[in-house]
Amino acid sequence: MSEHATGIEHGKGIPVEDLTADQARQELVRLAEEIAENDRLYHQDDAPVISDADYDALRRRNLAIEERFPELVLGDGPSVQVGAAPASGFGKISHVVPMLSLDNAFNDEDVRDFVGRVRRFLKFDPLMGALAVTAEPKIDGLSLSLRYENGALVYAATRGDGTTGENVTSNARTIKDIPETLEGDVPAVVEIRGEVYMAHKDFQDLNARMEANGGKVFANPRNAAAGSLRQLKSEITASRPLRFFAYAWGEMSEMPSDTQAGMVDCFGTWGFKTNPLMKRCETVDELLAVYHGIEENRAGLDYDIDGVVYKVDRLDLQERLGFVSRSPRWAIAHKFPAEQAFTVLNDIEIQVGRTGALTPVAKLEPITVGGVVVSNATLHNEDYIKGIGQDGEPIRDGKDIRVGDTVKIQRAGDVIPQIVDVDLDKRPADAVMFEFPTVCPACGSHAVREENEKTGRRDAVRRCTGGLICPAQATEKLKHFVSRNAFDIEGFGDKQVDAFYKDGLVMAPADIFTLEERDKRALTKLRNREGWGALSAKNLFEAITARRNIDLHRFIFALGIRHVGEGNAKLLARAYGSWTAFYDAMTAAHDHESDAWAELNDIDGIGHIVAEALVEFFAEDHNRGQLDALLAEVTPQEAEKIDASGSPVAGKTVVFTGSLERMTRDEAKAMAERLGAKVSGSVSKKTDLVVAGPGAGSKLKKAQDLQIEVISEDGWFDLVGA
User: Is omega for the bond preceding 337 within 30 degrees of 0, making it cis?
Assistant: First the structure.
């Protein structure tokens, strides 16, 4: 559940086509924050509170607003987070080619929209012929990347966070479907990607053995496959009946085919098992026929699937389409409909987030929905509990939700459920309407719903006013600081944050890095605390020391600045290069007439609201004080520069303006960034090059006034040699 204010004043609930620019700007920020918060809850805390369908609805709305208002696009909306960071028990492997996730479609119209978007992006007129797209079952397993050099398996890595995965090579070698050496004539470097899964019969047999031996049974085949592959002892993995389907690739020293279908055929000749249900289609109707055919026969398959994946077949078109922050433009997953079940609501728990938001979470009598045991569900906010929608309209026919109610749970695609209805016939006679707290359960401070001065409407979210005196907010900020995509300190999880904060050992981020020195002087050593020992204390101190040098974007993200998620942190790190340059710029940008303020707003993806949040953060004395203490202990590293050797535009700031005829605006931006250029949305004295098409207006004039080099679209292609 988002911690951030919603309402009509922010554009929530207003059709995209009716949004004003100001409403769209605020709505993009709200969506970015809500998506980032739900990513954190799902991937880091394993405590999701929103359904998969609702999550993807947020992303679809974000995309629609971005398409209508491209000048307002934020760098981390939607969030760039993919999967979850590697577990501490395994070595880490960096993916040469990132393992990204897929956008989702939930109905036939979404699929038609996907194909339409692809055609528009490519300017692919129907008269040009068929746009071939492959369709294949979406296996519900664990993604795995296999690297082969000269035909021999070198290593295997899980998806992890998309950039870095877990080294599970010894375990992968025990899977019969994964060849140690490839057959036939293969490229020198081959990275095969696919899904590790468990067949239904094998899963049932495994659970029977586990139960007979007094072990814990698995909830579903996907959990069984993931748990089996991620064993620290490979002999345990070897005893589990794991299988593997190959369907994609990462780094390839040469491409043996120029189509998706052709590549998958090659996998088969090299010794991999590929899915026989994969089809190549030339129309949307053919794609949907494959989808509905697989859906009808789903129950007869010996493995779990949760949808069908569509991919543009021609690899040159895939290259042109490129990627958005977290997924390829040339592929989409068409999910199967949600599954539902009834259970009892045992309690409503109020959680306090790091921005003070009070979030209600339903605690349920555990129930299996679509093969997954569900015990928590989202309740969104206090109006939702009362049966009131985001625009004041009744939901669930106006029925409120009470402890003791029998509720209908819906799970769409993944394990994140929501309550969609209440059975009033089964409501207990003594059930009372839920009273949402007006004081913070963590610190006792007033909890209020702020009122928008312009519209007079109250925010949907109630917030604690305790600020720094609220332990929930303080501990949540610390948990964010040490989280996997921030400082990622091994052995310093939520339990340690809560315990250390309660005992006064760690009250602020800098305290983490002075913990070992203070422990040496303390009468009660960490190793003597309950649950600790000499080895665990030593490991924690070493893990903390290992993070004294940290990537700049991780450091910025760890600060927990409002509206600055991982994506925006990366944009800022790339734009400023070093912590000193970033800090000086944010301090100078407090003057809205300064060049620093203009340059901050000129960063493509950083809008006015994000810029304001940054300036406000660095203007606060207590924030600067905590930063000074922290920087005495840690050193942010300079941002890694894009390797664009030989590129004539590497390191230059480029602005595209006017109509582009040979490529779309998105395609132009993607091309420039691949070549190491920075793309800005406005012209300033920092601009190096302006590419102007027909209809270029104020940006072209400003470039001419500043005597900045201006070239045509054809000149751009001549310059970069494309």
Answer: no
Counting residues of the chain whose pLDDT is more than 90, the rounded percentage is 45
Whichever domain contains 707, its CATH number is 3.40.50.10190
Q: Which of 12, 92, 123, 138 is catalytic?
A: 138
Q: What's the CA gap between 486 and 556, in Å, rounded?
A: 8
Give the Å distances, CA to CA, from 366 to 124, 342, 384: 50, 10, 22
Q: Is the pTM of this model over 0.70?
A: no
Lowest mean pLDDT segment, chosen from 541-555, 613-627, 664-678: 664-678
Look over the chain and give the mean of its residue pLDDT values, rounded to a whole number.
86
Measured in whole angstroms, how far is the alpha carbon of residue 355 from the centre of its chain?
A: 20
Residue 433 reports pLDDT greater than 90: yes
* CA distances for 621 relative to 114, 187, 618, 628, angstroms: 48, 58, 8, 11
Q: How far apart are CA 291 and CA 298, in angstroms?
A: 10
Shared-domain flag, residues 218 and 174:
yes
236 vs 72, more confident? 236
Report the candidate in 344, 362, 364, 341 with the shortest Cα–Cα distance to residue 412: 341
Distance CA 610, CA 563 (A): 6
CA 399, CA 176: separation in Å to the nearest integer? 54
Residue 231 lies inside a defined structural domain of this protein: yes
Rounded mean pLDDT of 641-655?
78
Distance CA 122, CA 626 (A): 49
**Residue where one domain finishes, among candidates 637, 671, 694:** 637
Among 425, 426, 448, 427, smallest CA distance to 437 is for 448
Q: Residues in the chain, how many? A: 722
Tokens of 606: 């950083």
What does the pLDDT look like over 324-375, one tens digit per residue?
A: 767 899 999 999 887 788 899 999 999 998 878 899 999 999 887 766 678 8
Q: Are residues 559 and 694 in the same domain?
A: no
* Residues 123 and 265 occupy one common structural domain: yes
Q: Mean pLDDT across the stretch 117-136?
A: 88
Q: Does the residue 573 lie in any domain?
A: yes
Query: Is 351 in a helix, a strand, or coil?
Result: strand
> Could you give the 3-state DSSP secondary structure of residue 651?
coil
Is 613 a member of any domain?
A: yes
Rounded distance, CA 145 to CA 147, Å? 7
- Token output for 221: 């085949």
Please name the residues in contact with 346: beta carbons below 8 A apart, sequence gap of 6 or more.
363, 364, 365, 403
Please check whether residue 147 is in contact with residue 190, taking contact to mean a CB–CB distance below 8 angstroms. yes
Task: Give the domain extent around 658.
Answer: 653-720
For residues 572 and 687, state if they share a domain.
no
Structure-model confidence comparison of residues 696 and 217, the more confident one: 696
Cα–Cα nearest to 613, from 18, 32, 184: 32
- 209 and 174 both lie in a single domain: yes
Q: Which residues contact 664 (CB under 8 A, 6 or more apart)?
A: 120, 121, 123
Helix (H, G, I), strand (E, B) or coil at 66: helix
Q: Count of H helices and E strands in the chain?
A: 24, 24
Question: For residue 587, which phi and psi values (nearest 5 degrees)?
Answer: -70, -45
Q: Residue 85: its pLDDT value, please? A: 43
Does residue 645 carry a pLDDT above 70?
Answer: no
Cα distance between residue 281 and residue 490, in whole Å: 47
d(CA 51, CA 413): 9
Best CA proximity match to 274, nearest among 250, 245, 309: 245
Active site residue 408: no
| Helix extents (H) in 137-281 | 169-172, 200-212, 221-229, 234-238, 260-270
pLDDT greater than 80 at residue 126: no
**Contacts of residue 8, Cβ cutoff 8 Å, sequence gap at least 6:** 14, 391, 455, 457
Taking a C-beta distance cutoff of 8 angstroms, is the pair 402, 345 a contact?
yes
Let me know if residue 447 belongs to a domain: no
